[in-house]
Amino acid sequence: MRTNACPTVPTTRYAAARQPPGTVTTVADQKHPGTAAATAEHGRLGLALILVAAFMVVLDFSIVNVALSSIQRERGVSAATVQWVVTG
């Protein structure tokens, strides 16, 4: 085995052999292989969840705004009452 003073370079031949060329590994990756991929996957899933939630908020707001005039007309409520729907 070879040792290296730089913590971002693999310290064993096995670690260096299983990494694609140009891949930077950290000491944490060497101690717990597979954690970087799992962390990246969790990050992508979290981002997807946030984006879907934001889309749902915008969609809900748009639907309510389109329906406000019909709600006001059919229910016979004042404009001040309809404003409460928008401001929450």
Give the structure's gist in a few sentences.
The chain has 88 residues and is an all-alpha fold.
Average residue pLDDT: 78
**Helical run tally:** 4
Radius of gyration: 27 Å
The biggest sheet, with number of strands, parallel, antiparallel or mixed sense and barrel status, is: none
Order of helices and strands: HHHH
Q: Kindly, what is the distance between the CA atoms of the first and last residues, rounded to a whole number of angstroms?
A: 65 Å
In which range does the helix fraction lie?
Answer: 55-70%
> Which spans have pLDDT < 50 for at least 5 consecutive residues?
none
Q: Which secondary-structure class do the elements indicate? A: mainly alpha
SS elements, strand count: 0
Beta fraction of the residues?
under 5%
Any idea what the shape is? rod-shaped
State the assembly state of the protein chains.
single chain
What does this structure look like?
- This protein has four helices and no strands.
- By secondary structure, it is mainly alpha-helical.
- The chain starts with 12 loop residues before the first helix and ends with a helix.
